[in-house]
Design brief:
By secondary structure, this protein is mainly beta. The chain has one helix and eight strands. Strands 1-2 form a two-stranded antiparallel sheet. The relative contact order is 0.08. The chain binds calcium ion (4 copies).
């Protein structure tokens, strides 16, 4: 067939889609001219290098995979891209209050009768259910 630049390869012919395979698929003299290795999340820096981060949007920036925004309901608490956004805020194990992560059952560092209770509220402190002894302490007159 006339114009076919590589008879032995069926992915190479005039008008073929340019694939990221280091071949000139469409026979126009250039390899991967329609593929930008600098910002293609499926071919980042090299053909077939797919950017993947758990529970986060992958971004290919200047040929390097970088982690974008966390998926809704997830948080990157350890600043480590390798495990992506590793905290599932809806797991029932955490509260996320004022930009800080707290474990379920953890006391409010400033107000002792408030506690992280994800079952009640993910984003606000919950009142301790059994605050009895604490209130008695408050009533005790010092000295
Ligand atoms: Ca061919
Ligand atoms: Ca190609
Ligand atoms: Ca080409
Ligand atoms: Ca992380």
């Amino acid at each position: 067939m006339g114009g076919d630049c590589e008879d032995a390869n069926s992915t190479m012919y005039p008008g073929a889609p340019e694939l990221c395979d280091n071949l000139d698929n469409d026979c126009d003299g250039e390899n991967e001219e329609t593929i930008n290795l600098l910002d293609d999340e499926n071919n980042c820096g090299a053909c077939g290098n797919i950017c993947v981060f758990p529970n986060a949007t992958p971004v290919c920036a200047s040929g390097i995979c970088t982690m974008g925004a966390c998926d809704p309901g997830f948080l990157d608490a350890n600043n480590d891209d390798m495990d992506g956004c590793e905290i599932d805020l809806n797991s029932g194990n955490y509260c996320y209050i004022g930009g800080m992560l707290y474990a379920a059952g953890q006391d409010n560092p400033d107000v002792e009768c408030l506690v992280c209770n994800p079952a009640k509220n993910l984003n606000n402190w919950s009142q301790k259910e059994n605050a009895g002894p604490v209130s008695y302490t408050h009533l005790t007159h010092p000295g």
